[in-house]
Amino acid sequence: MEQKYFIGIDVSKDKLDCAIILPNYSVVLERIVKNKENNISSFLSALLKKAKASMSSMVVCCESTGIYNKPLERVCSKLGIELWVEQALKIKRASTDMRGKSDRKDAMRIAEYSIRYQDRKVPHQLAPESIEELNTFSKARETLLAQKVALQNQLREAESHDPRSFKQLKDLYQANLKALDKSLLKIESELQSNLEKNQEIKTNMDLLKSIPGIGKQTALQFIIHTNNFRDFTSAKHLACYSGVVPFANESGTIVKKHRVSKMANMKLKTLLHLAAMAAVRTKTELKQYYIRKVMDGKNKMSVINAVRNKLVHRIWAVIQRQTPYTVQQEFLSN
Fold it and tell me: Which residue of 113, 159, 188, 258 sits 20 to 30 Å from the alpha carbon of 121, by its own alpha carbon?
């Protein structure tokens, strides 16, 4: 039987702290590698050659750190080495020894986690280029919008409280605001062009927007963060990831209110909240559901969360059926 090697990697901006251990938790090697594709590729290739091991005999596990993970993801995909990207909080809570804190210790904890919970391993897959492009456009749009809102807020406050300062700021910011508007229009155009090139993504966007309360940005973010729904297996799985599933909170005779977990995608959760608030104002069954539950004495936020959950199930349903959502005729006539 081929020997398995578990590689725990603590990822930071400039370097990777690596710990290689065997299934019996014995340490094979500890090494610091620059967070560059060439350095990572050389290290893993040399390790494979020295251990006389195949790609399938190695499991690389790291925490999710966003953009700093990209070089490692690309190298593992290129070499065919299995990569497991896990939430940092899960690894922290699973650790049995939290004495001391260093990158070296964290790498060892990640390696041990990959052995202990290997039955829960979810191999990481690189998102298609089309999804990566959409994600880049989306992030650029958010950054520019934040800058525009910051400038507009400053102008609005100055206009109401300091007219003299307002005139100066207006002259200073005018060119910046025009440039931001121009850039935002360009991003919107590029986004639309990208969607037109990929019929599958465009179709799913249109399906999602058929659901009352779901707008273009919410639909886009769901497609990006779910890899166009390839990374999920059920509506419940997606609802849990989106942070709308309430979990029990009790111990012995103490029974507290069910609460949603913070181990979720907070961006999708925020967008779902806005979508739910919009949905309960539409002439649909969700509005009737919200009114009925509130009149029954239910907490408003609990009802809104139930609406968020219903929206996730509708999102999953239209994608699986590949048919638009249709509002019941009785509600359209009200």
Answer: 258
